[in-house]
Design brief:
By secondary structure, the chain is of the alpha/beta class. Helices cover 45% and strands 12% of the residues.
């Protein structure tokens, strides 16, 4: 389905084929509410085509309130999907199907939301329904077959998961025959197997010119990262000296040239210029390999002054869907993609700055009185579960109203200012920093200044028009200061270029 505008007035229920505008069951004079709702829906379609999804959602909502119709629910589902609010997208698709059980496009929308949530078996059932109803629709048939392949692939991965878990990256490295470094390779080289500043400076320039790090060095970095990360706790404590600046960055999402821009305006990492990158280093953007080796390299170079937290995209399912696995396989091999999955399992889940500021990728919890010791006790060496503390650290979002509600994403929760205040008081903290959400200005301050979001990927996916931002603090003044910036030019490789075909 290529646009919401196709759906509103089309009789056809195929996923993508255009169709004539159907005759209304009632003339506008006989049903003025329907006419008003159709006009609102049409205006919503125009906003959708302009990628103004919030405005589109508001108009679809008004149309539903005026005269409920399965088409408006399906359109709103698609707009929520575009905003990555997969829980809301799923709910609206369900409502459309409840209104008209034969409405094929609603099944198509529901399948998309289910796939985004990695619920492939349920998505397959919906795509099978669509494929049977639309036997001549190539898009529907292709997506049905691709989803079937993914279900089979996951079943196979599950069958061998025990063997996978028994393999560490170090063992996988030992099993490999490291390729000889060719005489004509003139890229960056480790110094006796170790990362140096000269190596990192050379690596940034090498990647900037769209060159590939030799796999010999890439494998060594992964092996050394697993060894290092295994020594880290799930909650890492950071002490910032009184006069020292400390920088917190949010999502990077494979936007390597924007990562370079951060270093250009804020300085390269060093013992006197420490950084914390707060998850979602990869996926979406098509330079994720360059981003992750840059971040891993600096972590190895400055293990006590460069920090990395796990995001919800540092996981097997998300990497399969949103491009990182495809990119690694394209640039290196499936074996290396498997190695990344194992290394990601050891990334810390949160960081505590000067015992007063807690930083996590997602947010807070579905229960009261969660302590820092509870977070320290999380056994993180696994794929993120669908509920519990680890899941919520990676997936939850703030919302403006008191209390807790189900997440718009379909995973984690949304928590209000009272939840934030109670958590801070219980743990004697000043405020939390989190990432995970696109913000127009690159950051947002919520919950009376106690919950701060930072997002560092400007013009996310080359379409959101947002600024990027990072936060700087000082040890003797934990007041956050915000630096914003626009996107940097990058080679003409589109976002999601390596994404699984079902999501592209």
């Amino acid at each position: 389905m290529s646009s919401a505008a196709e759906e509103t007035n089309h009789k056809s229920e195929t996923p993508s084929a255009p169709a004539p505008v159907p005759a209304s069951e009632n003339t506008p004079e006989e049903n003025p509410l329907q006419a008003k709702a159709d006009e609102l829906g049409a205006r919503g379609n125009e906003y959708f085509k302009e990628q103004k999804y919030e405005q589109a959602i508001a108009l679809y909502t008004e149309a539903i309130e005026t005269c409920p119709n399965e088409r408006f629910y399906a359109n709103r589902s698609f707009a929520h999907f575009k905003q990555e609010s997969y829980g809301y997208a799923l709910s609206d698709a369900d409502k459309a199907i409840a209104m008209k059980s034969s409405y094929t496009k609603a099944y198509y929308r529901r399948a998309a939301a289910l796939m985004a949530l990695s619920r492939f078996k349920k998505a397959l059932a919906d795509l099978e329904f669509v494929a049977k109803r639309c036997p001549s629709a190539k898009d529907a048939q292709d997506k049905y077959q691709e989803c079937k392949k993914m279900v089979n692939k996951i079943a196979f991965e599950k069958a061998i998961s025990v063997q996978h878990q028994e393999k560490s990256v170090e063992k996988m490295c030992r099993d490999l025959e490291f390729a000889t470094i060719e005489d004509d390779y003139n890229g960056p080289k480790l110094d006796n197997g170790k990362v140096t500043l000269e190596f990192m400076e050379s690596l940034l320039e090498w990647f900037k010119k769209q060159n590939k790090l030799h796999k010999n060095f890439a494998y060594r970095i992964l092996c050394d990262m697993e060894t290092l990360l295994k020594t880290q706790p799930s909650l890492v404590e950071i002490t910032i000296p009184d006069s020292q600046k400390f920088t917190v960055c949010g999502d990077i999402h494979g936007q390597f040239y924007d990562l370079l821009h951060i270093f250009e305006i804020n300085g390269l990492p060093s013992p006197t210029n420490p950084y914390l990158f707060n998850g979602d280093f990869v996926d979406r953007g098509s330079f994720s390999v360059e981003c992750i080796f840059t971040l891993f390299g600096f972590k190895l170079l400055y293990p006590n002054h460069f920090f990395l937290a796990r995001g919800n995209h540092e996981s097997f399912n998300m990497n399969q869907l949103y491009g990182f696995t495809g990119e690694v396989v394209s640039k290196y091999s499936q074996n290396m993609a498997d190695m990344f999955t194992l290394v990601y399992n050891w990334l810390p889940l949160c960081h505590l700055i000067n015992k007063k500021v807690l930083v996590m990728h997602g947010g807070l919890f579905s229960k009261d009185n969660v302590s820092l010791d509870d977070l320290r006790a999380i056994d993180r060496n696994c794929q993120p579960p669908e509920d519990g503390l680890m899941c919520e650290l990676l997936w939850s979002d703030p919302h403006p109203q008191p209390g807790r509600v189900p997440s718009k994403r379909g995973v984690g929760i949304e928590f209000g200012p009272d939840v934030t205040e109670a958590f801070l008081k219980y743990n004697n903290l000043d405020y939390i920093i989190r990432s995970h959400e696109v913000k127009a200005e690159g950051y947002e301050v919520d919950h009376n200044g106690k919950c701060i979001t930072v997002f560092s990927a400007p013009n996310y996916c080359d379409q959101m028009k947002n600024l990027g931002a990072f936060i700087t603090l000082k040890g003797n003044d934990l007041t956050p200061k915000f630096t914003t910036y626009s996107e940097s030019p990058h080679p003409l490789i589109r976002p999601m270029a390596y994404a699984y075909s079902l999501m592209s």
